[in-house]
Write a structure and sequence with these properties.
The structure is a single chain. The relative contact order is 0.16. α1 packs antiparallel against α2 and α2 runs antiparallel to α5. The protein is elongated, with a radius of gyration of 17 Å. It is built from five helices and no strands. The protein has one domain: Ferritin, CATH 1.20.1260. Helix content is 81%, strand content 0%. It has 160 residues and is mainly α. This is DUF892 family protein.
Length: 160
């Protein structure tokens, strides 16, 4: 079975999504909605990481139950590069870039949850299906939030 590989990828992707949400919250502290909602949504992904790690052992994966807290070196370099290039002076465009990235990452995580749920149904593993059914709706909410924020912000930012 290749379910372990999906769990490993899902664990990585949820960690990455949580990290990106926290980074976006940090970059947009002045926008209270982005700051607070992104932090809440990151906590959901961190909870998912713990749930994936808990069930991963059954599928041959030893996954760290603690969400990654440190920013990846590449992400730190990208952030610093953006600052040095002056992108930090255009917070609207930075917000759109962040929302676009969050939308894409959440969409990828959602696809992974869907694949996992389908496999769990196929092999009748109710515990695995239960994890997918608990976590996937949160991911769909993360995706909808990023999409709604893009719709709300794009016009004003891009035409001003």
């Amino acid at each position: 079975m290749k379910i372990g590989l999906v769990l490993k990828e899902l664990h990585r992707s949820e960690n990455d999504l949580a990290h990106e949400l926290l980074q976006a919250a940090d970059r947009h502290k002045a926008d209270h909605e982005v700051f607070h909602v992104a932090q809440d949504l990151a906590a959901w992904s961190q909870r998912h990481v713990r749930e994936i790690a808990a069930i991963g052992e059954r599928y041959g994966q030893s996954l760290d139950p603690e969400p990654e807290g440190e920013a990846h070196a590449a992400a730190k370099l990208l952030d610093k590069g953006s600052e040095l290039l002056g992108r930090a002076r255009t917070p609207g465009l930075l917000l759109l870039r962040d929302l676009r990235m969050l939308h894409m990452k959440a969409a990828g995580v959602s696809v992974d949850w869907e694949m996992l749920a389908q496999a769990a149904q196929g092999i009748k593993h109710t515990d695995l299906l239960a994890v997918a059914q608990r976590c996937h709706p949160d991911t769909l909410r993360q995706l909808r939030w990023a999409n709604a924020m893009l719709k709300e912000s794009s016009t004003q930012i891009l035409i001003s």
